[in-house]
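Hi there, hope your week has been kind to you so far. Do you reckon you could talk me through the fold, stretch by stretch? I've dropped the whole record in just underneath, so have a look:
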Amino acid sequence: MTRYLRPDFRRQLHSARRWAGRLCLCTLAVVAMSATSLSANAQQVSERVARVQSLLSAESGYRLSVFAEVPNARTIAVAPELGGIFVGTRGPNLYFVRDEDSDGVGEEVNLIADDFKQANGIVYKPGTLFVADQHRIVSYDLANFDGERLGPPRILFTNLPDKSHHGWRYATLSPNGDRLFVAVGAPCNICKVSGLEGTIISIPVNGGAPEVYASGIRNSVGLTFHPETDELWFTDNGGDHLGDNVPREELNRARQSGQFFGYPWYAGNDTRSPQFADETVPEEVTFPEFTFNAHNAPLGFAFDDGDALVALHGSWNRTVPDGYEVVRVEFINGKPVTTQVSPEGLITLDQTWKKGDQVTLKLPMEIRTSRWYEKSVAFERGPLLYALKVGEDWQQKSNDLWPDPFWEVYPTTDWNYGIPRKVFEKNKVEVRYNGMKEMPWNLENAPITLTMQGVQLPYWKEYSGSPGPLPFENFTDQKRGPAKTIELIPYGCTTLRISQFPVIH
């Protein structure tokens, strides 16, 4: 149950950690964790990026890919409406990477602005890009953005603490999109702060004076709102030079404005800072909801199906390095829990249980393909085989051989599709969950649907009331129909069943 993305030479066990797919990591390049092709142009991937790939490994069922090589990449903001992503840096440069065909491979890396101190805190919403620089917060109107250069910025706020130590900002939007939340780090390892230092602030998206939403925060480098509760969650990195195993790193929840999280009287979690150990903490402290190993440096994170996916930078200030992985923190009833995995694979949830608590078990359900007659391809997910969703016309019949009425089923939609090789080689298959109905095993109530691109093959015809012989894989000299999105559903939901598809190039 414990799964990793990490350098091969480090494989210690950590509680509450599972592999997390479908993320983007910023290292020397922007690395996409998904089932996509391995490089934008394999011949052009630098030795530096190749080395990064060699140090990373993915758990079974997942693959790593290079989305694009972007110098000094640190943060990303996905902009599907613009056909690409914005990439921020801890320097003057801001980039836009085109991916107009959404295949997980960046076709073009453009430097779109180069006048920042630290272009790190980027947030996108349709029509607008926000950038939280070291000393100011600005926005850009994207109405005429061509993917190559930003226009002039609109200044939202100019008086952020202008210090380079922990001067990189991280930001997110409120659930209703009307306020921008920005993490402002402390300008030191452990020291008393002033003004906006060591806080998370919020400002209106149109500009104005900031409000301090949370304080007592050393260095938050990832914050986002829970999709169900609308509560703010954020990571916080603890102090350095206090030992290999203290202080533990934090995942915090801010239920409301005004909470205090302990810094600098606490160096992290419940570890008191030595220089302030004899002082009375001036406010009530909100302690973290979950902690990571010391010096793991939790960075950006996202919520996924109720759990939190957290990228751990890894340690520099530790005798034995630790971290360097993407982990899943499991949530039960909206709160993170610690899991312990025994050598036998038994999982223990460390939780104070109360009446009404629920646990949902989710098993690995990666999509698999297999090859059959005439090299046709079939799709499976978990224990289920999937078949094409074909419309059905049920007709009652009788004849001399069978005088009692019986039913025959005829197709009302096209069934003669082939699957392009790139669909399954690059895992361009989407899973849609439709909910479990009272009677799920039919066309209308199929609980899960796989969608992908198919190409109609007019030369694959009906023969004697059934599909004719499967075309050869390399049968490419025949006329084809247009490509279109097709749906596959569990085999048991179908009556007319096409589950083996010709492969086309």
Summary: DSSP finds two helices and 41 strands in the chain. The radius of gyration is 27 Å.
